[in-house]
């Protein structure tokens, strides 16, 4: 009975195949019927080749469908979200990660505008910009998901998203989405732990310093040399702890309370240089200044003093002996609502080892020390009292500049080869108005 079923099925299969071939031959003869007898015979000779080409086309189609399915499976498995829209911003496809990130309820058979499904004007603008410029674009923003169910609103949190888009043929755009909120949450927890630790360290460090001060007055050379070394290391730890606390406070409160008043720039820089001159003298370094003689800015004098103290200290540590550190100040004018808005640009240039290209994007990150050439100062082996950086100075500088509404950029100067720090401030004052802010 089993064999009978097998042969019956085989006969049906063979019969179906023969029927397909007969139908294909009949169709081809119908196409070739209007031709002459000679052409007809030639056409009959071409039938096997046509069959082979048709089979090849079918196979290529199957391969393409299989490749498409493979790519979709890969995107579904990817740890980042992906979505694709057509020329009218209608959602064509998105993976599971994108649906979870955007709280998106979408079925493959749905054809709807992306903005109807995801109320994110930042995402919509990024897609339009990508299509208009025909270049890949990136963007970051805080995404606030919408929800129709009031009961679920309390459980839905805003997310920090980063999107990378690329133009596709026929006006389509593909977008990769990255949820950066977990990373930000981890950083906040880390900062809180470090801040708690820094608070706890201040008391024992102060106690150690008091003990060292007591020993310092009771020991004579050469024993007091080791106590002096201990004092310097304790002071370095205290400065590190205080710098961390200051930086954490600045980042937690970007709009810090600034005691803004009129500050004369050149006098401030001169005062900073006088503080650092003993260190500069060891390297036979000099400071030169070019720019307006009477230049006033509205700023927190103590904070701006800290900015130039950190920047000039770095320049001294990494400058080559017997070179000059140059500070250049100039006023730039920009058009803002048809009114001239003066911008103060300050360029601080040294002739040191500069930054490596790999370090430049990270110089303002906390605890980033970068290239060994800039990790170890030329003074390190010459003096116990050399200032050693803690990797927080430039991070603090950036936060202070941002709090003043300014910006800072790190580069390498093309002529000196040294570090080039470019600062910009908007609060520029004329000398005649300086007394109004005193």
Automatic annotation (TrEMBL):
Indicate yes or no for the key word Cytoplasm. Answer: no
Pinpoint the Histidine kinase domain residues: 196-429
| CDD domains named in the record | HATPase, HisKA
Keywords, alphabetical: Coiled coil, Kinase, Phosphoprotein, Transferase, Two-component regulatory system
Q: Domain of life of the organism in this record? A: Bacteria
| Ranges in coiled-coil conformation | 47-74
Reaction(s) catalysed (UniProt annotation): ATP + protein L-histidine = ADP + protein N-phospho-L-histidine
Gene Ontology molecular function: kinase activity
Q: Which EC number(s) does UniProt give?
A: 2.7.13.3
Instruction: Name the InterPro entries for this protein.
Output: BphY/WalK/GraS-like (IPR050351), HATPase_C_sf (IPR036890), HATPase_dom (IPR003594), His_kinase_dom (IPR005467), HisK_dim/P_dom (IPR003661), HisK_dim/P_sf (IPR036097), PAS-like_dom_sf (IPR035965), Sig_transdc_His_kin-like_C (IPR004358)
Protein's recorded name: histidine kinase
Query: What is the species of this protein?
Result: Nostoc favosum CHAB5714
């Amino acid at each position: 009975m089993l064999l009978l079923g097998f042969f019956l099925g085989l006969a049906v299969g063979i019969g179906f195949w023969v029927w397909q071939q007969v139908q294909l031959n009949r169709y081809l003869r119908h196409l070739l019927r209007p031709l002459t007898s000679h052409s007809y015979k030639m056409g009959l000779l071409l039938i096997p080749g046509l069959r082979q080409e048709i089979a090849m086309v079918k196979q290529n189609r199957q391969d393409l469908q299989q490749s498409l399915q493979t790519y979709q499976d890969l995107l579904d498995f990817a740890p980042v979200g992906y979505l694709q829209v057509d020329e009218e911003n209608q959602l064509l496809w998105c993976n599971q990660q994108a649906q979870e990130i955007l709280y998106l309820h979408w079925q493959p058979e749905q054809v709807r505008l992306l903005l109807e499904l995801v109320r994110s004007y930042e995402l919509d603008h990024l897609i339009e910009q990508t299509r208009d410029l025909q270049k890949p674009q990136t963007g970051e923003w805080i995404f606030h998901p919408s929800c129709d169910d009031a009961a679920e609103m309390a459980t839905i949190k805003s997310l920090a998203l980063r999107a990378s888009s690329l133009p596709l043929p026929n006006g389509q755009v593909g977008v990769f989405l990255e949820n950066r909120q977990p990373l930000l949450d981890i950083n906040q927890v880390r900062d809180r732990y470090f801040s708690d630790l820094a608070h706890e360290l201040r008391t024992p460090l102060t106690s150690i310093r008091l003990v060292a001060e007591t020993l310092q007055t009771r020991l004579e050379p050469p024993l007091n040399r080791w106590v002096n070394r201990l004092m310097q290391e304790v002071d370095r730890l205290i400065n590190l702890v205080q710098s961390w606390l200051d930086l954490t406070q600045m980042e937690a409160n970007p709009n810090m309370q600034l005691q803004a008043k009129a500050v004369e720039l050149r006098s401030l820089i001169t005062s900073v240089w006088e503080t650092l001159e003993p260190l500069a003298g060891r390297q036979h370094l000099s400071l030169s200044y070019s720019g307006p003689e009477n230049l006033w800015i509205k700023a927190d004098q103590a904070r701006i003093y800290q900015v130039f103290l950190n920047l000039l200290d770095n320049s001294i540590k990494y400058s080559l002996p017997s070179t000059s550190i140059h500070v250049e100040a100039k006023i730039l004018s920009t058009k803002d609502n048809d009114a001239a808005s003066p911008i103060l640009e300050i360029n601080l240039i040294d002739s040191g080892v500069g930054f490596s290209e790999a370090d430049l994007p990270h110089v303002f990150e906390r605890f980033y020390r970068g290239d060994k050439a800039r990790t170890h100062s030329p003074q390190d082996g010459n003096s116990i009292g050399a200032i050693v950086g803690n990797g927080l100075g430039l991070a603090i500088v950036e936060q202070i500049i941002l709090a003043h509404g300014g910006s800072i950029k790190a580069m390498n100067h093309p002529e000196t080869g040294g570090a080039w720090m470019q600062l910009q401030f908007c609060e520029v004052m004329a000398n005649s108005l300086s007394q109004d802010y005193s």
